[in-house]
Amino acid sequence: MEHTLDVVRRKLYDKDYKLTPQRKIILEIFTKNPEKHLSAEDVYGIVKQTHPEIGMATIYRTLDLFAELKVLQKMDFGDGRARYEFYEADVHHHHHLICKKCGTVAEFEDDLLETLETAIEKKSGFQIVDHQLKFYGYCKKCR
Amino acid sequence: MEHTLDVVRRKLYDKDYKLTPQRKIILEIFTKNPEKHLSAEDVYGIVKQTHPEIGMATIYRTLDLFAELKVLQKMDFGDGRARYEFYEADVHHHHHLICKKCGTVAEFEDDLLETLETAIEKKSGFQIVDHQLKFYGYCKKCR
DNA sequence: CTAAATGTTGACATTAATTCTCAATTACCA
DNA sequence: TGGTAATTGAGAATTAATGTCAACATTTAG
Predict the structure, then answer these.
(1) Where are the domains of chain A?
(2) Model pLDDT, residue A34
(3) Cα–Cα distance between A40 and A94 in angstroms, integer?
(4) Labelling B143: which of A24, A34, B74, B126 has CA 20 to 30 A away?
(5) Rounded distance, CA A57 to CA A69, Å?
(6) Domain pair A5-86 / A93-137, same fold
(7) Contact with chain B for residue A128, Cβ under 8 A
(8) Distance between CA atoms of B2 and A79, rounded to whole angstroms?
(9) In Å, how far is A27's CA from the nearest CA of chain B?
(10) CATH 2.40.30.10 fits B5-86, yes or no
């Protein structure tokens, strides 16, 4: 397990952030929903069920923070809201298939881009630290 | 020249849309700024200089319309606003290099993804109609 | 040529996601 | 345990984008 509390706690303390109950709760939501791409609103909805006192702003701040610490990966599927999933080395080897009809997001494993990245760096002098590849189309059910 | 007025006029009339002065003006802005990735706000700013009577809503509607007609390609660089460039077959063979420091967007030609697309379609049953590949990092000047 | 039909516009209100503000509270360290 | 800086919740503010609607323009039918 890479994303235990302890790992996150260390990442936080390294930068003088604190591990608050709210942060714990939000982190837990991601461990319990590993396959989903949750938006701030999604997280808020889940949090509210057990902790109605936690505010929207805290959700946003925490997600931002986790993205900064590379605990979560912030993503944009073009539906007008940011979505988050655990940040893993893995993130760099899977791409997203976004259905234009029903909106579901599937994943596809691949590491072809690594070679493309080095080619680009050599050719253009641009130093790549991250990438995002999205395919739009129609899933099995909708085509 | 693929993007002359005549081509756009035809695309418009095919779907019972009209070529209005406002649409002409907005189109012209793109022919005069071919290298840029303009946002609605950008376009509005440029339009205002010569035609202050044109409203924001018209800009948005026109950009949407042009995107629908595949005159322009709507893009999202994650900076919170949509950006537009001419739609060309080319769009599918170039990717964007987005500098995390200065924000400039460079382009990189490539058609590696075509093969990847067919592989994905075969494997997953997902029918791909479009893709977007973005690389984040640091440009020559900022690295 | 004229009138109805239909597309388009500008001004303004509205929405939706996100960020800001600030006083009150809390987690951590000495 | 107490001090201090980080954090929180509530609500206001911001920002991109969309919706509304009456006035306007252009095409089409007669």
Answers:
(1) 5-86, 93-137
(2) 81
(3) 22
(4) B74
(5) 18
(6) no
(7) yes
(8) 31
(9) 24
(10) no
Residue B72 near residue B66 (C-beta atoms within 8 A) = yes
Strand C close to A79 by CB, under 7 A: no
Is residue B103 over pLDDT 70?
Answer: yes
Q: Which residue has the higher pLDDT, B100 or A57?
A: A57
Q: Tell me: the pLDDT tens digits for B28-62?
A: 899 888 778 899 988 998 998 889 889 999 999 99
pLDDT < 50 stretches in chain A:
none
Closest to B29 measured CA to CA, from B69, B79, B63: B63
Give the residue carrying structure tokens 């049953």: B125
Helix (H, G, I), strand (E, B) or coil at A58: helix
Contact A129 B117 (CB under 8 A): no
B85/B25 Cα distance (integer angstroms): 15
What kind of fold does domain A93-137 have according to CATH? Dna Ligase; domain 1 (3.30.1490)
In B, minimum Cα distance to A78 occurs at B76
Q: Could you give the count of Cα atoms lying within 13 Å of A30 in the half-sphere of its Cβ?
A: 28
Pairing assessment for the beta strands B127-138 and B105-109 based on DSSP bridges: unpaired
CATH class held by domain B91-137:
alpha beta
Question: For chain B, first and last CA: distance in Å?
Answer: 37
**Which contacts (CB < 8 Å, 24+ apart) does range B4-8 have?**
B7/B71, B8/B66, B8/B69, B8/B71
Beta strands A38-39 and B82-86: pairing type?
A: unpaired
